[in-house]
């Protein structure tokens, strides 16, 4: 995204950030020198007490003036810059006073050590510390005071500055040359540091000013989008929770439906098998009924034939009985003839007896005739008895035949009624067979329908499980989206929280730049 900024505004903000950076640096350096002043005062006092605590005049001694100088003058030199460093940090007057006091402290320490060359390195260390101000005037002031101290004391009191009674003027200029040499590099370094600080301030100013443009063109729409996304996420999470609850209830209902359909399928299968068994039994019963009906028809025909034969036999028996009666009358006639023959034979015997000898042959004939007549009478009596027996038997048989015919007629009526009922039963069985067939077809269709329903419920249950899995994934995605949205809000809040009315210190510019590049 291209961001265009006003050059004057950018320059003013860059200068403001640079000044703030320099002010913060000066304050930190002032406080550092305040601490250093105190340490130098204590260090000078320790050095004085260690090197020359007392001075002797014959057998009497007293505190060495170095000790008094370290305690009094050192405390005086340290007190003012320490007070200004804590009360007025960052001011130009404060660092000028610190540079002046530091030059006097360097001269005091060199004096306390009787001009030892090692103490002169305090000057170079001080220059390095003063360079932290990045102010060439401070270095020039300190260097000028040190140069004046070397020249004046080298000429009037060389023992105090160089530790010798007399010293060449060139020696002071040699020390001054080394100070100038160090100042050259410190100034070069300070100039580069100032240049870097200005570049960093310009970059930070550009970032801060572009932040407003970015906020207007990116952050604010992003905040609105994040807010809308948060609301949509909450709505999505709520909706997915409701859907998951509803789908869980539907899944439970589908599970119950699946159990019910499985039960229905088993019941339908059992009903189908039972319907098939009933249909087979009904068909078998229909076949048996048809066979029984045919057998009853044949039985009725046979019974009708037997009844007709019995009636015909009864008629024949009646005719035979009549003939037997006729034969009985013939027998009676034969008996009468035999009786008459007997009477004739008796009469002939009587006549033969009267005839005497002439009638002996006739008597024999008469005797044989009487005997034959008697036998005929006896035979006629036997035949008559037999005929009576036959008559009675024939009458009994006729009566039995008639009774049998009547009973057979009644049985035929019963059989005819049974046949009618059996025909009705056969009709009912045929109707029942058709109904059972329809029931079997319906049960088979129901079993197929239940099987399809069970298959559909299984597929629906699988789809419901997949839907629940997808809803869980949606819920997880919504939760992730909520977390990401929260992070976006956090980044936006952090991004907005970094902008303050006071510019950040210069040493934090790099961190701010790095953060904003990440943001």
UniProtKB/TrEMBL annotation:
One Pfam family here: MCPsignal
Single Gene Ontology BP annotation: signal transduction
InterPro entries: MCPsignal_dom
Domain Methyl-accepting transducer: 218-461
Entry GO CC: membrane
Superkingdom of the source species: Bacteria
Alphabetized UniProt keyword annotations: Membrane, Transducer, Transmembrane, Transmembrane helix
Parts of the chain that traverse the membrane: 32-52, 67-88
PANTHER family: LYSOZYME-LIKE PROTEIN-RELATED, METHYL-ACCEPTING CHEMOTAXIS PROTEIN MCPB
Official protein name in the record: Chemotaxis protein
Gene source species: Myxococcus xanthus
Lineage: Bacteria, Pseudomonadati, Myxococcota, Myxococcia, Myxococcales
